[in-house]
């Protein structure tokens, strides 16, 4: 019996494999593997195996190893002709079945077990030769430092054709743990249903996996059996590492950040979970059985810095460039990683750059020397090196950084935003006369900081923050951006970048700075993009003031703004932060609306007889007087404030908070449908009259905007559109008004941004930003102009803008707000500002 089959049998009836429809014990798996080994025959073969995360692939892979064959794992759906042509495998196993190829036959070293593609190889395939001893040593080391237990259940989030994904299989089967085989992405709800159903304890991820986790609101998921997560496959931003480390601490699981390469079978180093906060940029310490050394490299003058070299029993046998290399024994005793690193005083290793003149970006292997040569052909003498996630270019002479960015981007075949460029008088050189690439990187970083400071200053100005407090890996939402500051930021950012990137409010400063310049188009010189929600605010407040001043009669602006308020509630209040933070944000939102409203009402009570003391409580619709012609004017603020108060109480309940996080669109839609049924069609026969338009019974417009914010797919947007059309039809008894309201909300659903003349976009931004103060004061302003109605409208909007500007200047004179230290699951404190004002008509 094969030692591998014997090992599987020793775990008996312990669960080995779980899928959506299957459950295999180790005894069952051993039987399947034994049968697969026999099917492949006793003659040792080279097998190309197209991998999927399913039982058939696992059994065939293990069967091949059990039979002593050599396996080349390949990703599904790819063209394997290059590998087949070069290596002439004896057997090809793909989606169509097992194919025996005639006329083949190979002389292969007795220790050889696995051939895997290197991450950067292209063209003629260069494969990594791995032995059985490599696989066992790496699996044992991983199982040891992760503390994998027989009760663990790991979901296969990575392909088995990838050394990281395969290492998860090896390490868990080694100790008798279970695998949850799935092709689902962590972005799919079906993945999480399967993970919870099978009591998953762990899964692995590359940096992109963790981006998806944040988008999927991982922080709010209920995963009671989760023990740890692992991350490798590239450097993850330190801030994201810290965010997930914080979440791990709060929820009782661990995060292991790891460093490895195919040439080391999988892993070389790991960062212990208790150091992920303080040492988030480090790769950690060597895995059990391995060791690092630092060897000097020309061009890296910093003491203690050099090429990172790894030694351990998991180091590959060597490379294979063709079938003639398969018979070779081990030719490598140390792995030169090509990474420039240093050993810190605490014993942890840090990677600070690359020795190789190649970098991998956007899936491309870029020859930096060739980029330099191409720039030289264009009259640009430059040094090119890597700068984290960007290509760094330093050129000698009088060059504009934007021109350098575009030239280098064209030469490398990457977006211009992925290039950081600087122009200097002379290129930095070492005393030896060789290029000083670390100095070049520092020059670009310094320039990048200056470029970044421009955006940082913009964020600091709009959000009233200390610029030095702003983390370049933080986004507008992370830094406390809200619906009021969103208007100013979107307009100013569009001017700075030339366009508004999709979901810009969730992009970090670093990502915004890296945005490529928009392609030159003749119309861009006079036009700008404008957020639809901002445009609606501006148009609606003009309609409100103009209709009240009787300059024209176009009603419905207030109900559009109520929908926009719900839209911003969904975007800025219901974010992936802890429940206590959400409640605090909602309280801040209420204050943004209520405080200026009460202050103005107090002033108006002194100088006019328009209002009543009940208005100070924002409760005229509850307490009266009900026969006043003016006291009910502020119905919009009352609806907004009390709606937010009710929702604050609702989401204070842990069960409701969890429900919203798991089913955000469904819950918002339920409020919309329920609101229309109860408040629009009065299904409970409560005798709701036409004055429901101007009371809290108009809540369903707010719910509509909330649902729009959570609708992420076309079917969801269609559903919201249909429900809205049903609700609005016949609601006001005024076809024009209904068409206006429905059209505005439809734009919010289907057209996130609009393009308009730059001057118009700038004016709209200013008017929209001032909409709250315009709404509060216009009742007292336009009557001053009597029959000069147009002048009264202009004056009302001007007063609102002036008050907004004065408040902004006052805030700038106050001490700058300090960002609360991050101790929540995902992001710093998040506020939502005042939703948009409206009018009683």
Shape call: globular
Q: Compute the number of strand runs.
A: 27
CATH superfamily of the largest domain: ANL, N-terminal domain
Tally of helical runs: 28
Write out the strand line-up for the largest beta sheet, numbering strands in chain order. Answer: 2-1-10-9-11-12-13-14-15
Low-pLDDT residue intervals, each spanning 5 or more residues: 119-124, 448-453, 519-525, 818-841
- Mean model confidence by pLDDT: 85
Described by strand count, sense and barrel closure, the largest sheet is: 9 strands, mixed
What fraction, in percent, of the residue positions are helical?
40-55%
SS strand fraction: 15-25%
CATH architecture of the largest domain: 3-Layer(aba) Sandwich
Write the SSE topology.
Layout: H1 3-10, E1 15-18, E2 23-25, H2 26-40, E3 46-50, H3 55-66, E4 70-74, H4 81-87, E5 91-94, E6 97-100, E7 112-117, E8 127-131, H5 132-146, E9 153-155, H6 163-174, E10 178-180, H7 189-197, E11 202-205, H8 207-215, E12 228-231, H9 238-251, E13 254-260, E14 267-271, E15 285-286, E16 291-295, E17 305-311, E18 318-320, E19 335-343, E20 349-354, E21 358-361, E22 364-367, H10 368-377, E23 381-387, E24 390-396, H11 401-412, E25 419-424, H12 437-463, H13 483-497, H14 509-513, E26 527-531, H15 532-548, H16 557-572, H17 579-607, H18 613-616, H19 620-623, H20 635-652, H21 654-662, H22 664-680, H23 699-710, H24 714-728, H25 735-750, E27 753-757, H26 758-769, H27 771-781, H28 789-813
Parallel strand pairs: 1-10, 3-4, 3-5, 9-10, 9-11, 11-12, 12-13, 24-25
Antiparallel strand pairs: 1-2, 5-6, 7-8, 8-18, 13-14, 14-15, 16-17, 17-19, 19-20, 21-22, 23-24, 26-27
Helix pairs in contact: 1-2, 2-3, 5-6, 10-11, 12-13, 13-26, 15-16, 15-26, 15-27, 16-23, 16-25, 17-20, 17-27, 21-22, 22-23, 22-24, 24-25, 27-28
